[in-house]
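Lay summary. Proteins are chains of building blocks that fold into shapes, and those shapes determine what they do. In this project we predict the shape from the chain. Here is one chain we studied, written as its sequence of building blocks.
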Amino acid sequence: MADQSVFRITKELSDLQKNSDLSLAVACRDIDVRNVKALIIGPHDTPYEFGFFEFAFKFNKDYPRKSPAVTAVTTNGGRTRFNPNIYANGRVCLSILGTWRGERGEEWSAAQGLESILLSIQSLMSTNPYENEPGFEDANEPSDKKNQKDYVQKIRHETLRISVIQRLEEYLGLALDGSVATSAATKEDMDDAMDGMEDEANIPFEPFKDLCKRRFLWYYDSYLATVQQGKTEVKDGQSFTRMPFEGSSNTMEGKFNYSELERRLQNIKKALEAETESWAAEGLTPKYKDSTVAVNLQRQYEQIVETFKRTDTPHNLELEDNNPFVWILTYIGKPMTNLDGGLFRIRLFFSPRFPEEQPRIKFETRIFHHRIAADGTPCYFAPLSRREDAKSHIEAVLDALEEEQPPYDPRTLVNPEAFKLYWGKGDDRKVYNRRLRRSVQQSMEDC
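And here is the predicted shape, written in a compact code that computers can read:
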């Protein structure tokens, strides 16, 4: 039974990791498949939008006959209740977990699994989470309407402050004033310390660090838009409203301060840009210059260049200053499309810890595109199975750029203005196409 349980968990993890769902991520240590970490990225158009919410799963030997134990990790150290069903102490109230008495037929069954639990939790992150509280599903009194609005406002603020800003500041070693507490030298010392640890269980396990950094760059403009919206709705220093169902130790207390959040978001963005730029210099240090990573990237670069020549691919790829950690791709717009005639310079930064840290890519030539952020960061999905293949990242970026009939997916909202026009009504798509063509024409004039 135990072996069957491990096999089932392993298969579910593999299936989820192969899935192209941009809002779910799972990971575990190789030595401990029963303890799983999961990340849910908050749904678009809810107060949880693009927040990073972590959960811990513990599978017992009776799984899947019995459900796993699930604990919310993103709770501000046990001080913040993000949802009527997600308590400050980490308790997740769901009938399928046996932590809440639901309707007949809603209890756990062996047909359910890790993904169904994650989707159930994600469904709690709704537009109006006030209604999740039992007895408040149909609350329509004037006081309820006000509470619903107040509840959404404080969840939106704390999603940004706790799940995004605090998490990224911790990853980057940032103090509240934006200063960097962890220097590059200290990072090397930490790497050396990790190399010396023989027991994997003693090594800090942060499987979502790189993912959250890259997604922050995707959603940065959306975070700023949330700040601007918040500033129009509440005043800095205004206290949160306590909900009728919140208790003294199971609540969301605090005060609004969107001006402070905006400053901290900007500091995180600067720190991420500095970190990305530092990879080029770090890669040329004695520690990494002749490393396996450097040799591998050099070989992959040469293979891609050879492939471009052999297949008459019009694009050009070169190393910046012969540095295998920084590639420059010159993209020629696809004929007979809105990109036709465009000439775009794209820079690919590789970390000395590639592929554990995935590449960060930026369009240096400005382009108005619904899959390219205003600062040039592309939204793309490279297959996890090819995470070591640099070519897969180039292909994925170009696929996102050239896709003519993409499915609607709000998780790719990296350029709010372009996204709104692309998926808008009436003549919005025509306006989008004109602005895209204008940026393509400008790229030719700037070259």
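What the prediction tells us: Residues 37 and 206 are 9 Å apart (CA to CA).
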